[in-house]
Amino acid sequence: MKRKILTFITVLFSAAIISNANSSSYIVSIKFIKHEHTTSSPRNIPIQALYNGDDNSIYINFAHNIGNTEIIITNYSTGEVVYDSADSSNGQAVIQTSGTPGDYLLQIETESGDCYEGEFTVE
Predict the structure, then answer these.
(1) Is the pLDDT of residue 21 over 50?
(2) Among the listed residues 42, 40, 37, the one whose alpha carbon sits nearest the alpha carbon of residue 6
(3) What are the structural domains, with CATH classification, of the chain?
(4) pLDDT for the residue 24
(5) What are the CA-CA distances from residue 19 to residues 26, 52, 54, 92, 106 (Å)?
(6) Cα separation of 20 and 16, whole Å?
(7) Read out DSSP for 68-103?
(8) Above 50 in pLDDT, residue 89?
(9) pLDDT above 90 (res 1)
(10) Model pTM above 0.85
């Protein structure tokens, strides 16, 4: 039941972001890969993220509680780095970026040492 509710909330959250986008902005879905440091792993990646060009923010949804996370956003083009942390038990986090055009790397590391990475481009 919890999984269905979380999935429903995630879909609503994603739809709200997309519906707020106007023609001059864009939404970029960030796909993650997992680098495992532990012996146990979930069946799927418990994180979804979107970059919203309207407010230069990254919206992160946690499908389930993976503990406290450290978040690093790196702009390959400028070298700019943003550090933040989020408690995944809240279900979501919003990280503000500069919105400077370039290729970005989003890294999320959990308390257990698992690292999730995703790349996206801001134009």
Answers:
(1) no
(2) 42
(3) 2-122 (2.60.40.3080)
(4) 44
(5) 11, 11, 12, 18, 24
(6) 6
(7) EEEEEEEETTT--EEEEEEEGGGSEEEEE----SEE
(8) yes
(9) no
(10) no
